[in-house]
TrEMBL record, chains A, B, C, D:
This protein's name: Flavin-dependent thymidylate synthase
Cofactor note: Binds 4 FAD per tetramer. Each FAD binding site is formed by three monomers.
Complex formation: Homotetramer.
Single GO BP term: dTTP biosynthetic process
Associated pathway: Pyrimidine metabolism; dTTP biosynthesis
Cofactor(s) named in the record: FAD
Source organism (scientific name): Pikeienuella piscinae
A Pfam family hit: Thy1
UniProt record similarity statement: Belongs to the thymidylate synthase ThyX family.
Annotated signal sequence range: none
Keywords: FAD, Flavoprotein, Methyltransferase, NADP, Nucleotide biosynthesis, Transferase
Length: 309, 309, 309, 309
């Protein structure tokens, strides 16, 4: 369960209140505000705040005085033009703030995207919760044999059972010892009066990388799309892709025209190299091509042919 | 007049509409939203959108589930603690978007602050307005004799009159020729059918640096404070300080507790060097000090003594 | 002439000295170091310093202990792989510092690339040189009729002559008045003892946007490639493209393998949308396609067909 | 031992070669280049490359044509002026690249400084080394009772012994299981032919946060100083401070004048608030002050009085 009843109540309370504003409002996102979308076994992602909507992109591109929109149709066309020609600054005019609960090893991958604002739960200051990620059996993938960075078939039988047992036992054991070293239960109660307890900033080093942490993460729409193009991709690690896909749904509700353009030109598109373009040209003229004739490496050729279905 | 009647009407229209939102609302800023605060002779700055308020700073610092505030009193204390200890990330959780009309030479100084999002009116694509900054007589400062970067006394009499005349005549002349080269009036009408008209991206080079441009500028609160600490400072050039001071008022209305902490710890504070601290220590013990005894340069000593009143 | 004899002598002096270093050295760039490559009528760009070479990209990608290179052949393959898959962080491990002299209107476009370090010549502090850009007759383009942002045919005859005359006269006149307001000649000599002279930070507003400024600009290779992909592109304004093309030559001499990959995958490549990929697929199966069938706008279709030759 | 004999040999090899360059050379840093400075029990930090030296700061501040230096004395004065007045851009003209081996929990704190370039050893792609940080007994601090974020007295006797035992046993156990799940020894040899082995990107989640990772980290001098001002501070966690202090020595060897200014104005200086300045003023006039009279919180008063010795 990613949320305690108290947390759920706080969220419900935030959702129950509405206020008047003169700002632009994204209706599609308002209904989802604050709500936690579950990810993995104990994680979630939820929108905590946002600024702007599709019209804000148009308004900035035109540096206009009033609301962005004259006609929704023109706006969509302009947004597609901006996306196609990589005019990224108008997309930076929208901003979103997320609250994310995620395993540490996922957080370490996520934070590599530097153009964002982050406030993480501090394990120097606070005690971490006893929650860790254990993959569902269907996500217990073997190492890929062809690709050093990827996943192969799903583990089965005794091997799978043992992996699950090890992950669960080790996370439990190291967390137990974490508490023991702190000489505290989670509620902060001292266990043994004769002991001082190790500093939190040190004890945390005993926790495994599947322990859950939390952060507030704020990013503009241009950088969010860049994040999603890498992390909602089929080659991204499953455990971060789950979050990226949940955020895709949020973006779609928030800025539908921009998201559609993003899907058409980025997620669903492909970049061709000079040699790739040349190969396509020759194929369109009826020539039989292969990697060698095209002057491409086998891997590059395979990737291009996959993009061409 | 910085605004045409049409622009004023668009702003009034935006101000007249309110919507329901579940987001945090900064009441103090809502009443000022969209409104243009006049700066210099034809410029303005206005808030077009914002995200968060004081409670958002606290909420992020605590990575909490509900609204930031338990008690306003605790919040203020936490915000002051964060400001004092330069914990800057919680302040990055608030964001503001401004629409600014400003002379090009001010824009060139402003843009040196890189951690912000900008969309500027494009002189490649559009025709610039015939509006340029002419200083009021009381701001017609002479070059400082002591400080190569500063302003001295105000120019007077015939010299002042001539400077004003030159600025006005040259801006008018170069703008006239800009239009002539474009072979267009501002409304885009062709003047002489036998001429093609120079490309806008070239014709703009004939305009002087006091011509007004416009942009949307979006920044987080931490970086806004950094901008204000440099540009609302007494050593900043008057023409940018006017904007910074107008933005200070907006920030005060938006995040009153954070702004108060900013005033106390940044705007109204001072940094002392190792030598300066040592000198103060010795003065507190009754010793008579001067620059030489303190091992400080005369300029540094003067700056420190000024901070100490 | 972009350089005075004194400046040329300083550059020659810098070029004449060599020192011992344990750092990686890019032989191809060493021979060009400090040398000014002329751009436009009075501008230049020159490499003032650099860090790393192709091997540094490989070394960072492998987080290795020794020099990057085992075999130049493997390195080239890895660099191409990184470029193709947009693994941008290893390219950030190379850095270059340029000294650029450029017209203000070009500088204003250039500075929109924010992920770089900049130190510009200060017109608050110093007096600007009397140098301004006047286009060569063959670059005196008319406004494009089809594209609001572009250039059309070259102006000719009387219209061209008048444009050149206006540009030259106005830049000269406003510079003369700039000096008059400062009450100084360029060497800093006072002209009229009875006058105080306007502050430099104010007088500069009388200068036109074709006056030359200078800056030091430092950027990592990933962000340099992004800059070049936009500014060395055929759609970039000619006056900035000249600089970008000069920098392309420098990059080629500095990191030949990375530059080759950049040319193949970025400069010479093209991004296809979802609809574009689908259209190519159908064309490869022999179907006759057009914009409408493909569900693409005429402009997008035209752009894709241009990429396919 | 932080380095294997092979790694040590690679480093020695890099150190043994020198090349000719026309670039600025920082003699003080050349002698230390590539050399690993040991930090904690298995970590290190070493300079892999650098760009610029003190003269480069001066050169950029003056936007000059030749080398920065006329007279070393003037340069030092200018550098101090720039530091005192927070003119940060000239310091951004120097860049340094470090190779760091550090425990994951230190890396997580370090990466919060976002304005830097990073390439980390990939645990998706490669197998992590069996090396983890175990604090020396004298750094086994208890949780501070007064400060939720700090360290108190050193643990002793049985409690200390047990903490060390737990840390060591848990890191060993989880690493053993990591290898078992991978079905590989470190050299990549399969242990049990009947098993597929869990994907590396999953198995890594079983490792504790004291396991060592590595990265290349590249940063400009301004941002390096900001990092050092926070992490070489007495309030920083010991485990990151060790690295920061080692880097301070490197910076001192690289840019001695800039480092001296940094020490005088940042490390050894202090920021006073408006209320603090007022209190000092009154104390200098002979008034007896305390927190209440000064209108400061007890904590703030205490911090100020500590700065004043």
């Amino acid at each position: 369960m990613p949320l305690t009843p108290e947390q759920q109540a706080e969220i419900e309370h935030s959702r129950s209140e509405t206020r008047q504003t003169r700002r632009v409002v994204a209706e599609g996102l308002e209904t989802r505000l604050y709500e936690a979308v579950h990810c993995l076994d104990h994680g979630f992602v939820r929108v905590v705040d946002y600024m702007g909507d599709d019209s804000a992109i148009v308004q900035a591109a035109r540096v206009s005085y009033g609301a962005g929109t004259k006609q929704a149709r023109d706006d969509r066309g302009l947004i597609r033009y901006l996306m196609r020609h990589r005019h990224s600054t108008p997309f930076e005019m929208c901003e979103i703030k997320l609250h994310v609960k995620l395993p540490i090893f996922v957080a370490r991958q996520w934070i590599r995207h530097r153009t964002a604002n982050v406030n993480e739960y501090s394990a120097r200051y606070s005690v971490m919760d006893r929650e860790f990620y254990i993959p569902a059996p269907e996500h217990l993938a073997a190492q890929a044999t062809s690709n050093r960075q990827g996943r192969g078939a799903t583990l089965e039988g005794e091997e799978a059972a043992e992996v699950l047992r090890l992950l669960r036992d080790d996370a439990t054991l190291t967390y137990d010892h974490y508490q023991q070293m702190l000489n505290q239960t989670f509620a902060g109660e001292t266990i043994d009066e004769t002991r001082a307890g190790l500093a939190r900033e040190l004890a945390r080093m005993n926790l495994t990388a599947n322990v859950y942490t939390q952060w507030y993460w704020k990013v503009d729409l241009h950088n969010l799309f860049h994040f999603l193009s890498l992390r909602a991709d089929a080659h991204a690690q499953y455990e971060i892709r789950v979050y990226a896909e949940a955020i895709c749904e949020m973006a779609k509700a928030w800025v539908p025209a921009a998201y559609e353009a993003f899907e058409d030109y980025r997620l669903g598109g492909a970049q061709f190299s000079r040699a790739g373009l040349d190969a396509v040209r020759r194929m369109l003229k009826g020539e039989e091509m292969d990697a060698e004739k095209a002057g491409m490496s086998p891997a590059e050729w395979r990737e291009m042919m996959a993009a061409l279905g």
